[in-house]
Amino acid sequence: MKSSIKIWLAIAGILLIVLGIICLCKPVATLFATSWMIGCITLFIGLARLIFAFRTQAFLPNSATRMLSGLLLVILGIIFLVRADVLTASLPIIFSMWIIFEGVMIAVQSFDYKKVGFPSWWLLLLLGIVGVVFGILGLRNLGLSALTLSAIIGIGLISYGVSYLLAVFGITKFENKIKAL
Q1: pTM of the prediction?
Q2: What distance in Å separates the CA atoms of residue 131 and residue 115, rounded to the nearest whole number?
Q3: Which is the most buried residue in 17, 68, 78, 175, by most CB within 10 A?
């Protein structure tokens, strides 16, 4: 493999680690940036859906619904970008509600596992209940939820950065083994 690829991989790893550290140190800015990215992605998806609807309207039925959906996504994306503060304030609520929903789903599904004789079904039930409790706690303390969400993003970025750096060393070791053969 070209050494330039390994250099770029190492640079990307270092930048991800730095970005992760920034996310941990600046939780409000992290949530704001996340909201801005959600706005950009929503706007892009809406534009893509509109383009698809216009290009396929001659041979695909219901193109008007795709056009309407695309238009609504474009409007939503613009709102998210113009009023990123509203989405930023909503992210901890959305995150907590998602944790509650997933916890309930896991708890309910644990009984399906019990029916088929899975011996650790009770652990799934327990984890589902714990998820619901954490989701409720998140709704009760939105500031802590915001910090937690920012920490998850930061730690995730750091772990990706470390994995990139480890990949560089792994690729080098792999190349050395091939040369030895």
Answers
A1: 0.69
A2: 22
A3: 17
CB 147 within 8 A of CB 31: no
Number of domains in the chain: 1
Q: Which residue, among 29, 41, 148, has the nearest Cα to 92 in the 3D structure?
A: 148
pLDDT digits (tens, 9 = 90+) for 99-125: 999 999 999 999 988 998 899 999 999
The parent domain of residue 56 ranges over 3-180
DSSP3 helix / strand / coil % (the chain, rounded to 5):
90, 0, 10
In angstroms, the Cα distances linking 87 to 76, 95, 142 are 11, 12, 13
Is residue 43 within 8 A of residue 77, CB to CB? The reply is yes
Residues 10, 39: Cα–Cα separation, whole Å: 30
